[in-house]
Design a protein that fits this description.
The structure is a single chain. With 227 residues, the chain is mostly helical. It has 2 domains: 103 residues, Helix-hairpin-Helix base-excision DNA repair enzymes (C-terminal) (Endonuclease Iii, domain 2); 101 residues, Hypothetical protein, domain 2 (Endonuclease III, domain 1, Orthogonal Bundle), CATH 1.10.340.30. Strands 1-2 form a two-stranded antiparallel sheet. Its cofactor is [4Fe-4S] cluster. Keywords: 4Fe-4S, DNA damage, DNA repair, DNA-binding, Endonuclease, Glycosidase, Hydrolase, Iron, Iron-sulfur, Lyase, Metal-binding, Nuclease.
Length: 227
Amino acid sequence: MGTPLESRGAQAEEVVDRLHEEYPDSTISLNYSNRLELLVAVVLSAQCTDERVNEVTAELFEKYETPEDYAAASEEQLAEDIYGITFHNNKGGYLKGIGEKIVAEHGGEVPDTMSELTEFPGVGRKTANVVLQHGHDVVEGIVVDTHVQRLSRRLGLTEEERPEAIEQDLLEVVPETEWQQFTHLLIDHGRAVCGARTAECGECVLADICPSEKGDSEVDLASGEPW
């Protein structure tokens, strides 16, 4: 079993340092060219792969260029245009509602506050954090997706289960200058090495400090279940 550092703060800093070396070009993997496209892409990415979202938005963004375009379309048409995205019917409604709200309440511009963004249909704190960070250069939190949720528990950075509670724990131990990059680093590592079902501990640069390392540990701290 790996041996974590004495404090969670030290553990978090070591994780960040090592993953920076492993993934020097780590960044967001969704394709977009403006704030509206970013917002739409992140909403579509919920429970769907970024690769699939990028495939669908390649055509979507040519057809819908403004909030007015989304507001004018029917939910059924939008659902058809994003067919292949998980929960496309629900998300078609979200896109129409977002378009209407941006036009009616925000002068056609994507707002730059957490409170305003989370009033949009289909937008929670995770989505809002991504839009703030990459659309407005406002970093006030850590995006906790499924990879961050899994790896932060495996690495002993939190024992919480809900994303909101995990984020609060991470904000206390991850250096503020790394809040944005922390998410991308853990996503890259989760995809490449530390998968939900296929954790390759023998290839992991964090194995010696990971309390879930399955060479000795019998339990995956992400799930609480035996390996």
